[in-house]
Amino acid sequence: MDGTNKMPRCSSISEWIKNTLSRTLKVSNCIPKHVGFVMDGNRRYARKNEMEIKEGHEAGFESMSRVLELCYESGVTTATVFAFSIENFNRSAREVDLLMKLAREKIRQIAEHGEMAQRYGIRIRVIGDLSLLPKNVLKSIEETTELTKANSRGTLNICFPYTGREEIFHSIKKSIEIATDSQTITESMIEQHLYTGELPQLDLLIRTSGVTRLSDFMLWQVSNKGVVIELFDCLWPEFGPMNMAWSLLKFAFRKYFSVKDNKLEEDYDEEDEEQEDSVDNREAYSVKKNM
Amino acid sequence: MGTFESKGAMRRTAPPEASVMNGTEGKYSKLKALQALIGSLFSGKSDAGESLGNEENKTFWKKQKSKIQYSIYKVLLVTLYLVYGCYRYCQYEWNKMKIRMLNIIYNPSNTPQLIRQDVTKLEKIPKRLAAILEMKSESHVGGGSQGLMNDGSEIVCWTVSAGIKHLVLYDYDGVLKKNVQDFRKDIRNKLSKYFGTSHIPKYAVRIPHLNKIYFNDKDSSSTENHKVAIEISLLSNRDGRETIVDLTRTMADLCASKELKLGDITMSLVDKELVHLVGPEPDLLLYFGPCLDLQGFPPWHIRLTELHWEEDNHDVIYSVFIRGLQKYATCKINVGK
Question: Which NCBIfam families is this protein grouped with (chain A) (predicted)?
């Protein structure tokens, strides 16, 4: 009896902490608008914990929804997750099938009544080279996209199956197709035709499992000046809302003080410790500013 | 008002924490969080008080509450900032100390043999190395274009000593490209410091954007022996997105004049052209700044590139270089698997 009572109590306390944290972060007004995730490490997690690969991927999905909830709650409007790379088709047929099935299930689940899409008013988009997908998966994707089309408070881009180079290539081709005169092709035109074209610029990229590569994810967007790249050593299913809150806090802190840098010096004398800190921050940003 | 009342009713039936969980809609969410807070503190007493109050009172309280809530969150935020600030200060000092220690451990002291020794221990080394350089302000020590060229030539020496044949130097504004003649002299001077004036390794400086190549520090007209120990490509922001735009325009022109069909444009064609225009993808990218910012580095060329930088480091130092190589030696790339 005690045990069963305790469990929901615990989870609701952590839920409460999560909500308070995200609202606190929201009032900072320095939250990234667009966050990208490379969700790496599901299979390694499964191996580490002696689970089946399927369970690893499921744990990864759980982790994703928890992290995204915190993001949307704290004011992030757009999130892009790397779910499946075009290169992943090279995996064993069994695993590809499994991933397709799982994706179909989960994409549907997100849009279900009372789930994330509805709760946060999020539009679900599936981006990438959709022509590579099997028919039945494509059908559920279309249904979900249609169902959440009208939601306007936020966007979730699921990259499935996607590579950054394919995205650039796709945009190049589209631009050539549309342009009447080659001189009308500009950088912004190519940017517009990327899958993330009309969405806010990427501000923060998060990658897990300690790999320091982009692995063909949002190449065009990440190479932009000023995008913050955060790498975590933990595997994706271990990456929780707390890690996310941490990186959002880090982002907000940096942004807040780097904006202040450009203002008058008088703004600094608020609190002693804060001042001490902003000195160190000023140092960190002087390089950036003086570029 | 209706929504407010119905929310109140819901709260009475559900436990306070649960209402926080449900409370996710718009501005009501904050309100409900506080309601739940108060609710859990006074366990139901506040409910009675609220439902008794008339409508005007309620709107007044609603406004007050959201104001109070806002301030509570602000205070919380400042506390978080303070805590994080303290942590960050310690982290900054720690990182600085770490870098100082590393500088003592890895000190090339202008001798290629020492670098060679460090590198021969490694299992594999990158074929192509890239580095992003930043120009510091003139007032800094080692700032200005002179400082940048000095840093660049230093990296050239390390790369030659490590036995890597290709080096890409990227700076956003293209300062190195503009001062290529001075830069070549700088490289020569630095190399002679490392290898002695009689054994200066042969080098070539390439500017892909202008389609120019300079051999050693003489003028490029001499076409005698073109075997070089290192080829240095100078890139800037121009070689990134703008080059992709240029390529798109060229292909659009070709399509318009029916020399190229739209269907003929494939990934491998684009890749081939971009390799031709900019160069192949580097295996390892070093960044000598405090936290990674790719600053418009050619996007097509960082697909599987290993990235390395040291947190809170501001200088071009050997320890970043060698630790980058060490990291590359241990990493495993398996595309898609």
Answer: uppS
